[in-house]
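so ive been stuck on this for like two days lol. basically i have the seq below and the ligand is adenosine-5'-triphosphate, smiles is in there too. i just want the complex predicted, nothing fancy, no docking runs or whatever. if the output looks off dont worry ill sanity check it later, just need somthing to start from for the group meeting slides
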Amino acid sequence: MSKELLEIKNLKTSFRIKDDYYAAVDDVTLTLNKNEVLAIVGESGSGKSALAFSLMGLHNRAKIEGNILFKDNDIANISPSKLSKLRGDEMAMIFQDPLTALNPLMVVGDQISETLLLHTNLSKKKRWEKVIELLNKVGIPRPEHVYDQFPHELSGGMRQRIIIAIAIANNPELLIADEPTTALDVTIQAQILDLIRDLKDSMDAGVILITHDLGVVAEMADRVAVMYAGQIVEIADVHTLFENPLHPYTRSLLNSVPNTAAEQEKLHVIQGIVPSLQNLPRLGCRFAARIPWVDAAAHEENPILHEVKPGHFVRCTCHSQFYFPEESKEDQTHGIS
Ligand SMILES: Nc1ncnc2c1ncn2[C@@H]1O[C@H](COP(=O)(O)OP(=O)(O)OP(=O)(O)O)[C@@H](O)[C@H]1O
């Protein structure tokens, strides 16, 4: 589980708004290994999708700086022709909303076949056979019948399976799943997650799983990166993150998912939302405005990720002096043990 597949270095993705550029992803440095699930979590607007789209080279008009190193390519600086060879072949994405990701006017079997046509030399008959095999693999019953159905004739769970079949058609080594189960009910959600896990194991693929659902993180992830306002504020293996979260934002996120009513009473959650792009502070700790009771001197001028234990990184020094206002003095010792 240690072979590095993807290396993201100082990635900055900026959108032009009026006369200026604003970074939705700012100074993101991450690695992903083969056969590893790296979850990216954070509230709405924290930059998760902007990051996923950057990795797939899907932004048309954004300014991309830094490096995205994957299989001897730098996706941040790659030609469109090289990119379209990689996409759908060695890297693929599972989108949040299968209905908008599928072509409503084409039967689903042909949509899977199309990605084979783009990246293989298989004959029409072989492609049909491969599509049936893929439909079986993603758990679609009566695949010969489903091949000729249009997206609107299928349930949400079935459509998501079609998206997954398209994504894995060419055995990608890198799979990016952006909220893959958000639109699905709980039972189907569990089946889709099982499917992604099995596919990862069978293909030895690296998976970046974007979600705001910490239950999904606990079940699926090997490592977790927490994003706030375009930046990674904490990275750790999944056990460390749940057992010993350090960044105030991570602690608040975890507290926002109470297990029982009794526990809920003891929990503390930081109020507020991620600022809009144009209102992001460009200097200093981006989380400072959400924790005004913490001494300003606790924040770094230019917060960086500190490795507090091997593999456990946290941004800014403010975590060491952070406490929830409702906590007693004894509770305030939370932190590195
Ligand atoms: N094309 C764009 N042009 C301008 N701003 C954008 C664009 N795409 C995203 N943004 C802004 O970038 C920030 C990050 O958005 P992003 O969609 O990446 O967040 P997210 O964490 O994926 O949220 P969600 O969970 O709601 O999908 C937001 O402030 C958003 O409004």
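Residues 227-333 form one domain. The chain has two domains: 4-221, 227-333.
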